[in-house]
Design brief:
The complex is a heterodimer of chains A (about 325) and B (about 280). Chain A contains 16 helices and two strands. Chain A has a two-stranded antiparallel sheet. With about 325 residues, chain A is mainly alpha-helical. In chain B, about 45% of the residues are buried. Chain B has two domains: about 1-55, no CATH class; about 65-275, MetI-like fold (Orthogonal Bundle), CATH 1.10.3720.10. In chain B, β1 (about 235) and β2 (about 240) form a beta hairpin. Chain B has about 280 residues and is an all-alpha fold. Classes of the chains: A mainly alpha (about 325), B mainly alpha (about 280). At the A-B interface, α3, α6, α7, α8 and α9 of A face α1, α2, α4, α5 and α6 of B. Chain B: Keywords: Cell membrane, Membrane, Transmembrane, Transmembrane helix, Transport.
């Protein structure tokens, strides 16, 4: 690309580089022009988008109307979608939605309050607490899942059961029961993301001008008033952000359940999620068309949520 | 900033945060402790906090280092994939973010909207056709199969674009007058200016890649190609679990990230927050 002419231009001959330009090839001039350059810069995205996003999305739609067997694909119309109406998939949707809602309930207010408390300048060890609470986010779900599986294990000596023992209660099979299994999932989510969300809120707090609080104090506002009328509204962008990422993480949850229940099959599917069902149908049982239909349902869910979000919050930080 | 903290209240807060910090560190502590005990102990009593010096040893670690499992092969695979992915992802995403922010061109808004669309749709939805595509491209069970589909990532693009919005465009004109080519401007002027953004994104992307699970599990087939998380999870089988390797292996898997984190805490935390939630 860089022709020798290019380097010649740097030789201090005292001559303006202009006369040398015509010696460049047409291609070189084209590629180096400031009109072409932006397209060269965005080319990686365009290629990757076309090949690894647009094409697969279209394929998913097409596949969802097909029965895909090795070598043979047959058009089956809405057959896959009809088959989706079954109790197992219903359970998977319910689990995913419930998990998403519960993580929202836990992982928005708690980090917010903790961030506000930790943000006080009088608070000793702020940096230390912030860092320590971030550490769980560094561990992979596989490692974290293994640990939590053991903590919620059914043996008498496992942590949760020894905790029950302290209160004089009988050991319990935590992961065999839907409610306590879900508890384990939520505690795992709380453990991994509490520090991260707190961090987001802390960075949001940095951007609230202190004058607002001073003015409120002069007007005789109580600390609770300031929190309710200044802090919470000013943190709205962070809340929207945390809300958004939590919804996507919640709806596409898979690995946590995979790890807690040793593979993609929990007793009575108490931990089955939409992605878990997609994985089971599409990859484990090799019925790709049906798996694709599951993907389409997840896509519809996501698009609906996007629409709701657009309606309430405007396009997520489009221009600023 | 807020009103004055009173003494006892502040002490209460410290206690509260010590509890939360305990909650954060406790599972890691428990697993580290367990890694020094024989796995039979774990199978009999479960994960617990009993400190029994008589049964504690380095046996589990010694077993891993003997090399009877593919553990270090997995470790190496994870390192290769993480480094390659992070380097490529940063260069390519920075290019795109730069192109989108610093130039005016016809399709700019269309392309940026597409970046947002990719950001909004979970990858799990396209997993199956992507898997078929990888079979077609003969990339199954290869490092490239893991890396390629996600190497141009929307979040870094978004982040770099955001970062560059604070860089004056006069730099470019000045460089052009001095005879620098469009690409020279990017490589020689903008890339050095973007160093803090690179640091933040490098840490985030490396962490994601190191811990990535679902897609590598789909693409990678043979035992010698697995990454660390997939290898570790493969130790949990319906026929019995290799807890000795699993537990000690988990501790060794967390270790490098933890060390990097302790050294570069500031960048880690900036990397997480810089993602663009400025009020």
């Amino acid at each position: 690309m860089a022709t020798p002419v290019h380097t010649n231009a740097n030789v201090p001959t005292g001559q303006p580089p202009k006369p040398q330009r015509p010696t460049r090839s047409r291609w070189s001039r084209f590629i180096h022009s400031s009109r072409t350059a932006p397209y060269v810069f965005v080319l990686p995205f365009v290629l990757s988008f076309a090949l690894f996003f647009a094409y697969p999305v279209i394929s998913t739609v097409i596949m969802s109307f097909q029965e895909v067997l090795p070598g043979i694909t047959t058009y089956v119309g809405l057959e896959n979608y009809k088959d989706l109406i079954n109790p197992t998939f219903g359970k998977a949707i319910l689990n995913s939605v419930l998990y998403t809602l519960l993580t929202l309930v836990v992982l928005i207010p708690l980090p917010l309050v903790l961030a506000v408390l930790l943000n006080s300048p009088k608070m000793p060890g702020r940096g230390l607490f912030r860092s320590v609470m971030f550490i769980p986010a560094l561990t992979s779900v596989v490692v974290a899942g293994t640990i939590f599986r053991l903590m919620f294990g059914e043996l008498d000596g496992s942590l949760m059961n020894s905790l029950l023992g302290v209160f004089g209660l009988e050991p319990y099979k935590w992961l065999m029961n839907a409610n306590t299994g879900f508890l384990a999932l939520i505690v795992l989510a709380l453990w991994r993301w509490l520090g991260v969300n707190m961090l987001y809120y802390m960075s949001g707090l940095q951007n609230i001008p202190p004058e607002l609080y001073e003015a409120a104090q002069i007007d005789g506002a109580s600390r609770f008033d300031s929190f309710w009328r200044i802090t919470i509204p000013m943190l709205k962008p962070v809340t929207i952000y945390v809300f958004t990422i939590s919804i996507y993480a919640g709806l596409s949850m898979f690995t946590e359940s995979y790890m807690l229940w040793n593979g993609n099959n929990s007793p009575n599917d108490i931990g089955l999620t939409i992605v878990g069902y997609l994985y089971r149908q599409g990859l484990e049982q090799n019925s790709m068309g049906f798996g694709a239909a599951v993907g389409i349902v997840l896509l519809v869910f996501t698009l609906l949520l996007n629409l709701v979000q657009l309606k309430f919050f405007g396009l997520f930080r489009k221009e600023d | 900033m807020v009103q004055k903290q009173k003494g006892p209240l502040s002490a209460l807060l410290v206690v509260l945060f010590i509890l939360f910090a305990g909650f954060a560190l406790f599972p890691l502590f428990a697993v580290t402790l367990a890694s020094f005990k024989p796995s039979t102990e774990l199978l009999r009593y479960g994960l617990n906090l009993k400190l029994e010096w008589s049964i504690m040893s380095l046996k589990n670690y010694a077993f891993i280092f003997q090399g009877t499992t593919d553990y270090f092969q997995w470790y190496w695979n994870s390192v290769v994939i993480t480094v390659l992915f992070t380097v490529l992802c940063l260069i390519l995403s920075a290019m795109v973010g730069y192109g989108l922010e610093m130039y005016r061109f016809k399709l700019k808004n269309v392309i940026f909207t597409l970046v947002l669309v990719v950001m909004m749709i979970p990858v799990e939805i396209i997993m199956l056709p992507l898997y078929k595509l990888m079979i077609g491209m003969k990339l199954i069970n290869t490092v490239w199969g893991v890396i390629l589909p996600f190497v141009v990532a929307p979040i870094p693009i978004f982040f770099f674009r955001q970062y560059l919005s604070g860089v004056p465009k006069d730099f470019m004109d000045a460089a052009r007058v001095d005879g620098c080519s469009e690409y020279g401007i990017f490589v020689r002027i903008m890339m050095p200016l973007m160093a803090p953004a690179f640091a933040a994104m490098a840490i985030l992307q490396a962490m994601n890649s190191w811990n990535n699970f679902l897609w590598p599990m789909i693409v990678l087939r043979t035992n010698d190609m697995l990454t660390l998380p997939i290898g570790l999870s493969s130790l949990l089988t319906p026929y019995g679990n290799n807890y000795d390797v699993l537990i000690a292996g988990s501790v060794l898997a967390i270790l490098p990230i933890l060390v990097v984190f302790l050294f570069f805490q500031r960048y880690f935390i900036e990397g997480m927050t810089a993602g663009g939630v400025k009020g």
